[in-house]
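SECTION: protein entry
WANTED: fold as tokens:
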Amino acid sequence: MPKKKIKEMTGIFAAVFAHTGHISKEDAKEISGLDDASFEAAYQKASTIADKVMKAEGKKMEAFIAHFAAIIDKDAKAIDPGFF
């Protein structure tokens, strides 16, 4: 379970860069190590994050970190509720 969740978080992180055109979608999938269906789910989450960041006012990196952190927090609690 933890390995799968960590791969999903990695997939989301890499997919944000693919969604914004910094790397290819195929490269993001390779980085994640996810299967097709799992990567598509990660890519959808990444798309939501990227869209929110692009609409954010002010410092975009802070918005990215905040939105990505919310996903990490949720997924980390699924691994171990007392992790953070």
In short: The first helix runs from residue 2 to 19. The chain has a mean pLDDT of 89. The chain is about 80% helix and 0% strand. Helices lie at 2-19, 25-32, 36-55, 60-79.
